[in-house]
Amino acid sequence: MGDAATVRQLDVVQGMLHKSVIALAIVPTNRSLTVTGRKAYSVMLHLAQRHAAAGTEGADGGFAAPLNSILRGFGATNSISSDAKKYIDQMVSTKVEWRPLSKSEQQFALAFGSEHKGEGAAAAPISDELRIFNLLAEVRIYKRAGENWVTWYYPPSIREELVSPSRWAQVDFAVLRRLGTYCAVALYEICARYRDSPAGLTSRQHWSWWAEALRSSPSSKVRAWRKFKNEFVAPAIREINELGDIEIELIELRRGREVEFVQFGVRKSARRPERLTPVPPDVTNILRGGKHGIRDTVVEELERGYGAQAVSDGLDRYERFMSGAGRPRIGNAGAYLRTIIANRARDEAAAGQGAAPRSSTHDVVEPRPAALAPQRRELEDAERHRRFDLIRQQFAQLDPDEQQEWVARVRDEAATAPVPSAGIMKRLLRGEWQSPLVQAMVIQHYARSELGDDWATVPAAEFASLVGADAGPGAG
User: Fold this and answer.
1) With contact defined as beta carbons under 8 Å apart, do 190 and 34 qualify?
2) If we measure between CA atoms, which residue out of 202, 207, 256, 66 comes closest to residue 147?
3) For residue range 343-400, what is the model confidence (pLDDT) as tens digits?
4) Neighbours of 453 (CB within 10 A)
5) CA-CA-CA-CA dihedral for 90, 91, 93, 99, to nearest 10
6) 227 vs 16, 27, 172, 278, CA distance in Å?
7) Plot region of 354 (φ>0 → left; ψ -120 to 50 → alpha; else → beta)
8) What's the confidence (pLDDT) of residue 287?
């Protein structure tokens, strides 16, 4: 592997990040870590390693760089107190649990930690250690010559291992920048550790270990491997095999009919992506969407599906529409933006096939006429009931504790009514959400909170994408 100085020089020359094994299988414990945040963290590690190689790190152990070298999209006029802070703060405030990839790396971790000794006794061997730390110990964001800058510090006990790792995975930035989901980035970084392994196999771990290491949120409960595999792991494998410099294969080990342990086969791909210096993730569209109340995850999903330029064009059209006089309130800005971009993509596809595109006014969902024909009302009532049933089925599949949290929120709202109904309050206090008396209240509250105020009227295809169901009769 070579000495530390050689490692750092390789990082600079080859455009490869030598990411320490302690930063590969990490499990957020107190808040979600976005795919943008994880990519930015890798860029910061690369910059820190480059500074260390050149001897230009701060005398106090910190590393400094322009914010745009970590996250693209911050101009001199951007507010560092709001826009930049939410991303950098994510790294300072996110506590992660390190999961050793194997037993040998568990022992390696103990080697650079402090020794535990009893009074008057020799050092006793340590086992089953749990190590939790913040991704960054401290961050300073400031202006220098009109440009936003960042200085950051790593936790002292792991600083040297991050900056000058003795065991690492070679993470190719050309691959990293192309991967679009948190699961794909996390799985690629772990599997890259085994790129040159003679056996070509990751360690064997219980499926729950992999589910926790590959998910971005500590609050999302993984109840079944099959569902997690289909929704997250299988698409991540396809993405890595299509875009990466390695190819991976899922290996499931069963006890009876149930999957118990999981590992991955890893081999080098014939594909060799062009080695590039690290390009920081571009958050321009995310920042623009945030100003309209559109979640980061929605923008990231749209960029994966349609490309960054299509999302930028969609935001342009959204802003033009909202700047007009007398525009209706948009209940779910994310779903509305999805509609604009999807309609534009369909028009371009139709134009490419020789069909006449629709008028550009399709970007705007026109207000509904005050009087609807009876047949139209019947269709809309049927569609509303269909959507309600789908959301009710989704709610029924939640963990009972999570269901009770939603019931408690409805109960708190009902308690503020001028004259709360005794029957309603009684059933809410008991958590009887399936009672006909309160079911509609609970499900509609859940739908508004999770899907937006306009959950019953967004286009059928958009509703289907939100709940993971078939588009239904209104699709088209």
Assistant:
1) no
2) 66
3) 888 777 777 665 544 444 344 443 344 444 555 666 777 778 888 888 888 888 888 8
4) 14
5) 120
6) 34, 19, 29, 34
7) left
8) 81
Domain 4-106+130-268 falls under CATH 3.90.180.10? no
Tell me the one-letter amino acid at 21.
V
Residue 142 C-alpha from the chain's centroid: 27
Which range is most confident: 23-27, 55-59, 187-191? 187-191
188-207 pLDDT tens trace: 999 999 988 899 999 999 99
Residue reference for tokens 């149930």: 258
* Per-residue pLDDT, 286: 84
In this structure, what token pair is assigned to residue 168? 């690492």
Tokens representing 209 are: 């270990």
* Token pair 């599906």: residue: 305
Domain boundaries, the chain: 4-106+130-268, 286-367, 373-476
